[in-house]
Model the fold of this input.
Amino acid sequence: MKNRATGLGVGLRPHMKTAKCLEVGKIASMEDFGPVTVSTLAETAYFAAAGCKDITLAVGITPHKLAPLADLQRRYSVEINLLCDNLEVARAVGNAAQALRTAFSIFIEIDCGGGRGGLDAKSSQLVALAQMIGNSDALSLAGVLTHAGQSYRVGTFADIVLVAEAERSAATTAAERLRDAGIAVPIVSVGSTPTTLAAQSLAGVDEIRPGVYMFFDLDQFCLGVCDLEDIAMTVLATVIGHNPRSKRLLLDAGSLALSKDQSAGNRCEGFGYGLVFSIDGERRIEGAIVDDVHQEHGFVAGPGNFDDLTAAFPIGSRVRILPNHACMTAAPYDRYHIVRTDDQRVIDIWSKVRGW
Amino acid sequence: MKNRATGLGVGLRPHMKTAKCLEVGKIASMEDFGPVTVSTLAETAYFAAAGCKDITLAVGITPHKLAPLADLQRRYSVEINLLCDNLEVARAVGNAAQALRTAFSIFIEIDCGGGRGGLDAKSSQLVALAQMIGNSDALSLAGVLTHAGQSYRVGTFADIVLVAEAERSAATTAAERLRDAGIAVPIVSVGSTPTTLAAQSLAGVDEIRPGVYMFFDLDQFCLGVCDLEDIAMTVLATVIGHNPRSKRLLLDAGSLALSKDQSAGNRCEGFGYGLVFSIDGERRIEGAIVDDVHQEHGFVAGPGNFDDLTAAFPIGSRVRILPNHACMTAAPYDRYHIVRTDDQRVIDIWSKVRGW
Done:
C-alpha cells in the first residue's frame, strides 16, 4: 500500500480500525509514526499514548466527546482531526473546544454516495460550514474527507473502479467549490482498501485512508482485490468434536471468535463463516467451511465424505479459519500471535486496543 | 427463573455466557454462589476467582485445556465439571488429569437434535463411555447433559414446547440406559431459556441451565418467551448525524457495538439490528430501527417522515438500542452501567469477563 500511495502520488494515513495495534500501525505507516486514522475514542487514546502525533478520528464528532480528546491533545502533544458535516454541530464543537481551552482541526465530511456521514459535494451548506469553522477561534479547517463505504457492497472489481472515481470526484468537487469561495483546503482525503486498489486516478487527492489491506480477508478476496494467500490473519481453533449425525466437525470458535459477518457471501457462494485451513496453512480439504456458528461452537462441513473430514481433522487437532471480514473478527481480541510461516512458531505477541 | 425452576422441581445452574458478570450471577443464582454454567476458560477462571465452587464448562473438552483448569481447581477449591462425548477423548482426558494430579467430574453430552456436541441418546457408545469414565482414577461421572440449541431456530412457541420435550426425552433416555446398565447418574441436566420456559414437564430432569433470560432480547421476544418490557440490556448510543439523502439517522454504535446478529429477523420482520428507544426507555418513533450497520456507525430508519425522525432524535441526543441477541451484543463490553429506570441515573457499574 505504501508503493500504491507513492505511485498514485498521495499520502497514506492508514486506518487502524482493523488492526487496532501499534506494531501493525508502525509497519503500515510511511514514517514511524506518521499520520493514522482511527474510529473510536479508545483507539485515539491508544495511538496518542503510543506516540502518534497526527490522528484523524474518522467518525462524525459530537461535543460531549471533546473533553477526553482535549485531554489527549494536551498530554501527548498530538493533533486530533475531527469530522463534521453540520453547521449547528460545528458551532457547538467550536464553543466546547473554546471552553476546554483547546483547538481542533476539522475535516468537512462529504457523502460520496454511501448515505452515511457527510454533506453532498454540491450542498448549499458546504461553504457556510467551512466559513464557520474558519471563523471559530478554536477550530481550523483540515480539509475535506470522504469514504466510499459502498465499495464493500458492489459486485465486481469493475464496479469498484466506478466507486473509486465517485469517491475522488465528490472530494475534489467539494474542495474546488471551497477554493472557488476563497477558502484554503489543506487536505483532500479519500479512501477504502477496495477503492484505493481500484482507482485509476487520484488527481486532486492528497491522502488515502485504507485499513483492511493490512490483513485482507475473504470479503476482499471475493471483491477481487487480494488472493487467498494475502490473508494475514487467521483464527486458531481446536476440533472439539465429530458429530456423525449432522456430519459436522465442531470447533471451539463460534460466533464470538469468528464474528457473524458473512459479507463474503454476498459475492462468493459457500464461504459460510470462514474457510478451514490446517494449522500449517494448507487447505487439507478443499471446500471445508464453517457453515454454522453458535456462541462458542463452530460447525465445519466438507464437500465430500464425512470420514475424510474427520480423518483430516481428528479431535484435538487445530485449524486456522480464514475470516470473512477481518475488522469484525479481530475486534474483540486482546492480542495477536505472530506466527512464522515456515515452521508455525509463535515469534511474538502484539497487544492491541479494543472496545470504545 | 428461580420460581420456574422451583415450580418444575429442578435445580437452577444459570448459564453465565450471556451476562459474564459476577453481580448478575449472584442475582441469578439460587444461593450466593450456587452452581453456574460457563462456556470459556476465561469465564471459568473469572467465576472460580469470584468464589463459585461448582462450575460446569459446557463446551466439549479437549486435553490441552486441562492444565489451566487443574490450576483453578487447586487454587480455588472449585469443582469444574467437563463435557465429553467420545471414548478416545475421555481416555486422553483421564490420562491428562492423572498426569496433572487432579480429577474432573464429567458430564456425558447428549445430542437432542441440534447436531452440535453429544452422542445420540441411543448410541451404542453411551454405556462404554460411562464405564470408561467410571473406571478412570482421575474422572467421575457427573451425569448426562444436553442443550436444545435448535430451540432458537424454530418458528413458534408451540414448536419450542416440542423441542423442550425432545430435550427432556433425550437426556432422560440416556440416563435410563445408563442406570439400566447399573451405572449411577447423579445429574440429568438440560436447558435453554426457551425450552425451560416452554417445557410442560421436566420429569426425570435434575437441573436446568438457561442464560439469556437474565437480559432477554428481541430474539426471545419474537420467540414469544418475553415482552419488550422484559429486555433488561440496551446499548446506549449517540445520534451523530442526520443524512437527508439516505433519510437515516447515524449513531456511534455499529456492528461492533450492536453485533451483526439478526436472529430476531428470522421470525419478526423489520427489527433490523435493533429497536430504537429514547434514553428514558420510551419508544418515541414506533418502528424506528437500526436498519444497517458499519463498523462504528448505525443507520436508523423510521417508518414515516424523515423530519419527524430528526425532530425526535436531534444530533447529540442519546438513544437506547434493544438488541437482537443479548449474548452477542454484551460479549465485547467490559462493564455494565446499571441504570435506575425512574430517573435514568447510573447507580452502579459492574465489571464483567470477556474474551477466551
Notes: Chain B has a mean pLDDT of 96. Chain B has twelve helices and 16 strands.
